[in-house]
Write a structure and sequence with these properties.
single chain; 475 residues; alpha/beta; Aldehyde Dehydrogenase, Chain A, domain 1; Aldehyde Dehydrogenase, Chain A, domain 2; 2 domains; seven-stranded mixed beta sheet; six-stranded mixed beta sheet; 24 strands; globular
Length: 475
């Protein structure tokens, strides 16, 4: 598919082209070549987006639930129908293999579909009172919402926020990443085709700091939802504090994986290696810190290295590709520094450890016996690098898993049910996967603890984050 080059902003139900605005070059990471120019919003554009969202909010809030649900369902149908084409856009601007990109589009469609049904189940409650009196508790839309999403899962993370906010009755201003605009535009197109009233959803791109300061600083916005790095999340918290704005923050992680000696090792490795290198490791819940029980550690390292060497790296548009390039030119250099630091401090390089190709490629990499003082043991690599260390017993494994100030996701592999229960209870993370990686779905809450943020997306919790609670007492 030829990449879509007519990129625009979507404000108050209308598409806006460059028209003298500054622009951002969109780059294909597999070739390092520019494939499009993206117009960037001005402050006037942002003011118009804010005004449109404010005007549209009361009408959308008061729209009957079944009508809201029908629009969300139609948007889901549009994404499913066009998943192959949208997936190709995503691959060309982000790099992930086409099969992963297409699956991501279906995941975005699922978010709209699930919230189209969940909003119908959004019940309040009546409290027990004397005869003739009533106390009712109900949830209402919080107001105008601002969402900020990253480039690693651009359409899925956008849909996860927008679907829940629209279902709740909020109007939305979204700033998706400038690196991956075309696939995000498909969400706006889906909502437009579904008949969403104008002004209920705006999509703007721009200089991140200017856009976030301008939008969050407006009294019109009552809720902010952000997925991205911890430093940026803390910055947005400061911006939101002056207006006492509600926040949902899904920030970085450094997911530990605890592998105990009672597992079927070959089966476990067959699960671990593809998951580690999914989206070139650019996944906030990517399994990264592998702690393996001493008795199987050497066999684990050998098996992991053998499988890593077989991962097919290439252009994501090639169906044979298992792992594409990193998403931008900054990432290979950052990974290289972390790997170099680790090996200089004593880590063993078991596979990979090199750049490659004309684009932003870095080979799938395994480091063994990584010392705790290596930077990569404390700083999330956000790339195709697995680090491994042995552990002796359950207490040591938990100590290492909980060592860092992050708590987004964690994983453990064991056949011992009692141990699995203890791990689920004692690992400090918002999500724990036992013997698998299925921790993100439309019907389940997704979010972290500690420095990895607060609030949840997905599930009924994801709907509630865009609502306020009101108690009505009738005497």
């Amino acid at each position: 598919m030829t990449y879509q080059t007519d990129l625009k902003l979507f404000i108050d139900g209308a598409w806006r082209a460059g028209e003298g605005r500054d622009h951002h070059d969109v780059v294909n990471p597999a070739t390092a070549s520019t494939i499009a120019e993206l117009p960037l919003a001005t402050k006037d554009d942002l003011d118009e987006a804010l005004a449109a969202a404010e005007r549209a909010f009361p009408g959308w809030r008061d729209t009957a639930v079944d009508k809201r649900a029908a629009i969300l369902r139609k948007a889901s149908d549009y994404l499913k129908k066009n998943a192959s084409d949208i997936g190709a856009l995503l691959t060309q601007e982000q790099g992930k293999p086409i099969k992963e990109a297409t699956a991501e589009v279906y995941g975005a469609a699922q978010m709209f579909e699930w919230y189209s049904e969940e909003i119908k189940r959004d019940y309040g409650r009546t409290l027990v009172r004397p005869v003739g009196q009533r106390s009712i508790v109900q949830r209402q839309a919080v107001g105008v919402v601002a969402t900020f999403t990253p480039w690693n899962f651009p359409i899925y993370l956008l849909a996860k926020k927008v679907a829940a906010a629209l279902a709740a009755g909020c109007s939305v201003i979204s700033k998706p990443p400038e690196e991956t605009p075309a696939c995000c535009h498909a969400v706006a197109k889906a909502l437009e085709e579904a008949g969403l009233p104008k002004g209920v959803f705006q999509l703007v791109h721009g200089v991140p700091d200017m856009v976030s300061r301008h939008i969050i600083g407006s009294d019109i916005v009552r809720k902010v939802s952000f997925t991205g790095s911890i430093p940026v999340g803390k910055h947005l918290m400061h911006l939101a504090a002056d207006g006492v704005k509600r926040l949902t923050l899904e920030l970085g992680g450094h997911a530990p994986v605890l592998v105990f000696d009672d597992v079927d090792l070959d089966d476990t490795l067959d699960k671990l290696v593809p998951q580690k290198f999914r989206n070139a490791g650019q996944v906030c819940v990517s399994p990264t810190r592998f702690y393996v029980q001493e008795g199987i550690y050497d066999d684990f390292i050998k098996g992991f290295a053998e499988r890593t060497a077989k991962v097919q790296v290439g252009d994501g548009m090639d169906e044979a590709t298992d792992m594409g390039p990193l998403a931008n030119e900054r990432r290979p250099g950052e990974i290289e520094k972390l790997v170099g630091d680790a090996t200089a401090k004593g880590a063993r390089l078991m596979a990979g450890g090199e750049r490659g190709g004309n684009g932003y490629f870095y080979q799938p990499t395994l480091l063994a016996d990584v010392p705790l003082e290596a930077d990569i043991m404390s700083n999330e690599p956000f790339g195709p690098v697995a680090v491994a260390r042995p552990f002796k017993d359950l207490d040591e494994a938990l100590e290492q898993a909980n060592r860092l100030p992050y708590g987004l996701a964690a994983f453990a592999f064991t056949e011992n049910l009692r141990r699995a229960n203890i791990l689920g209870d004692r690992i400090e993370a918002g999500m724990v996967g036992i013997n698998g990686f299925a921790i993100s779905s439309a019907d389940a809450p997704f979010g972290g603890v500690k420095d990895s943020g607060f609030g949840s997306e997905g599930g009924k919790e994801g709907l509630e984050t865009y609502q306020v609670t009101k108690a009505i007492h009738m005497c």
